[in-house]
Amino acid sequence: MQLFFEYLGENWVDLLGLTYDHIVMVALGILMALVVGVPLGVLAARNRRLGSVILTSANVVQVFPSLALLVLLMIVFGLGFTTVVVGLFLYSLMPIIRNTYVGLTQVNPAISEAGRGVGMSPLQLLLKVQLPLSLPFIATGVRVAAVIAIGVATIAPLIGGGGLGREIYSGINMDNPARLYAGAIPAALLALLTDFLLGWAQKRMNLSR
User: Fold this and answer.
1) Closest alpha carbon to 96 in 134, 129, 126
2) What are the residue ranges of helices labelled H in the chain?
3) How far is CA 158 from each of CA 75, 86, 176, rounded to the nearest angstrom?
4) pTM for this predicted structure
5) How far apart are CA 164 and CA 84, in angstroms?
6) Where are the transmembrane segments (predicted)?
7) Looking at the predicted structure, is the pLDDT value of residue 194 above 90?
8) pLDDT tens across 107-123, in order?
9) C-alpha distances in angstroms, 104 versus 41, 94, 134?
10) Mean pLDDT value of segment 188-201
């Protein structure tokens, strides 16, 4: 561990840059998944037949081996940042779609009926009543997706991406445990911190309901 701390002290600026790259890749993937996943979750909740198709398709992507998926994406998008972000987007879709779907289906029908009774349009009912009540479920989906994405992003260097995975694979290739730990430990801490912060936000949402 002494070598690890020495390496950390000498290269902390570079490690901060890699951590920033890691966070940017994950954040963009999650943001794209939210923009696409929430509407798909709404469609799934509105139409059960279409919903089964959407959920099954997203589930197929979720169970696809991460490295295999990134290699396939590399054929289309080439090496680098874009391929990693698209891969993280695809891996983040399933938790967000499913939790949006579950959240909307758990809304008390009496509340929806009351909204219709006061003259709300379907869009107003969705935006002002149903989605706000579903936020804790959606937050759970984001929480799960973020932790998964942080882990998947560590293999980004294999397809030309950046992030903390560079230190991990450099450490493996050079038989340098200090470099390996310098990538793996911050990645693990980042996942734990993300899970804690999103879990805290989720509890706040539950308390405000």
Assistant:
1) 134
2) 2-46, 48-63, 66-77, 81-105, 109-117, 122-125, 131-152, 165-173, 177-208
3) 13, 15, 18
4) 0.90
5) 13
6) 20-45, 66-91, 135-159, 180-201
7) yes
8) 888 888 888 888 788 88
9) 8, 15, 6
10) 92
Q: State the helix-helix crossing angle for 81-105 and 66-77, rounded to 10 degrees.
A: 120
Under 8 Å between Cβ of 36 and 29: no
The one-letter amino acid at 187: A
* Per-residue model confidence as pLDDT tens digits over 58-72: 888 888 888 888 888
User: For 2-208, CATH number?
Assistant: 1.10.3720.10
26: three-class secondary structure by DSSP? helix
At 95 the pLDDT is 93
Burial of 6 (0-12, 13-18, 19+ CB in 10 A): exposed
The pLDDT of residue 123: 84
Q: Give burial (CB, 10 Å; 0-12/13-18/19+) of 11.
A: middle
